[in-house]
Design goal:
seven-stranded mixed beta sheet; Rossmann fold; binds nicotinamide-adenine-dinucleotide; 14 helices; globular
């Protein structure tokens, strides 16, 4: 694999295309980004200067429905990265079986260097420069790295002003007061635990005797930990970016989260052994849940991973080289496009609620999420048999097959 994310995404697609015996024309269509936009837009800074920022929106494929995907604000944003992410969104929406295609976007900016009013003006100016591309039936952005529900609310507001009527369905991940969905903040972690429960059924893991280690105690990791404990699993390890805690008798999550809130660190929390993040990944456990950042399981540590199963809650936590080693060792990974699809699934529910002017209860959101993600897991698990391949490849093959089935005929 190369360091170019889009080349990696293409390589992944080609592998699946060989398995599905897709013809060259179809592979060509799936390999190209439908629309690739770069905009350079002005923002008035607090001191009166006007600065020009660069933003992107890549729309990969809309065969299954309007384009859907996050907007990230980061200095690391590159065209290749956003292109790759837009293709992965196409596969993720197809796996989750929600009626969206794939897109991604971003602005090259270090948000830490902006005041709140600069951030607001930047968000609105970016929307003004891409407004013709987006819309509830065209392309529906969402939050991603360093973009927040508040930023989504500013963007939806600006779009509504441009089109002349309130249009909350143009963007998801908004605060509840601005048309966001109840349950969205918990959705990815909760969805991951529904996946863990389905995995348990097909592998005979008994929750009470199943140990789980979770890397990352942010939004996704902390809700995953909480719901896993409520579902009867033993969470024996957790970590933040600096410190990991391990206790084979079980972690006292409430205490750990309170300690972290008060002290800003897990260090000194007590009642568990402290270790490095890298060491935690290699501890004895049944299930390992990377829920922090990409590329934490690599060819450097894959040989030492002791978990039997990995549930990928972060995006891309296992490198392709590590994946080969894990597969050889019989360790099964539930791929990110499936395990963390709870977030985009509830984004779909938000879009539906906005379009129909409805407000679902949190209970309804969670029960609909459970139905969707459970079905996605079962379909993916069965695809292993159908395609006679590993879980990750089977899930991608299923996604690509669904997109191919929806491709319009070329006249
Ligand atoms: P977050 O910022 O709330 O939390 C990230 C956590 O990772 C924090 O606890 C942080 O301390 C920890 N962390 C950072 N660097 C680390 C390192 N080097 N080693 C170990 N831990 C480290 O982010 P989040 O929203 O919880 O997202 C986590 C992952 O899940 C990301 O990869 C994100 O792309 C993915 N994801 C999130 C959602 C969502 O709905 N939030 C949906 C799909 C995928």
């Amino acid at each position: 694999m190369s360091n170019d994310p889009f080349q990696n995404a293409l390589q992944q697609l080609n592998q699946v295309a060989n398995l599905l015996k897709l013809d060259d024309q179809t592979v060509k269509r799936l390999s190209s980004i439908d629309k690739s936009i770069q905009v350079n837009f002005p923002v008035k800074m607090d001191d009166g200067r006007v600065e020009i920022f660069t933003g992107y929106r890549m729309q990969h494929n809309n065969a299954r429905g309007p384009y859907k995907g996050g907007l990230r604000f980061s200095n690391q944003v590159s065209k290749s990265e956003v292109k790759a992410l837009s293709m992965w969104m196409t596969w993720k929406c197809a796996v989750a079986d929600i009626p969206f295609g794939g897109a991604k976007g971003g602005v090259v900016v270090d948000t830490k260097k902006l005041s709140e009013s600069e951030l607001k003006r930047l968000s609105k100016s970016f929307i003004r420069s891409i407004h013709q591309l987006i819309g509830p039936q065209q392309d529906v952005p969402a939050p991603d790295m360093y973009t927040t529900p508040q930023i989504m609310a500013w963007m939806a507001d600006e779009y509504s002003k441009i089109v002349g009527s309130p249009t909350p369905a143009v963007i998801t991940g908004k605060p509840v007061r601005s048309g966001g969905s109840l349950g969205r903040n918990k959705a990815t972690g909760q969805g991951g635990v529904f996946v863990l429960q389905e995995l348990s059924k097909v592998t005979s893991l008994e929750p009470a005797t199943t140990q789980v280690i979770i890397q990352g105690l942010g939004n996704v990791g902390s809700f995953f930990a909480d719901f896993a404990i409520k579902a009867g699993y033993q969470v024996v390890g957790v970590s933040d970016s600096r410190t990991a805690l391990y206790n084979p008798e079980g972690i006292d999550l409430k205490r750990v989260l309170n300690y972290k809130k008060q002290n800003g660190t897990l260090s000194g929390c007590g009642s568990a052994q402290e270790m490095s993040n890298a060491d935690l990944l290699e501890m004895e456990t049944d299930v390992l849940v990377p829920a922090a950042i990409e590329s934490v399981i690599t060819e450097g540590n894959a040989d030492r991973i002791k978990a039997k199963y990995i549930i990928e809650m972060a995006n891309g936590p296992v490198t392709p080289e590590a994946d080969k080693i894990l597969r050889r060792r019989g360790i099964v990974s539930v791929p990110d496009v499936l395990s963390n699809s709870g977030g985009v699934t509830v984004s779909y529910f938000e879009w539906l609620q906005n379009l129909n002017n409805e407000k679902w209860s949190e209970q309804k959101v969670i029960s609909e999420l459970k139905k969707k993600i459970t079905k996605a897991f079962i379909d993916g698990w069965q695809a292993r048999e159908k395609f006679q391949t590993d879980f990750r490849t089977a899930v991608y093959a299923l996604a690509v097959q669904r997109v191919v089935a929806a491709l319009p005929k070329v006249k």
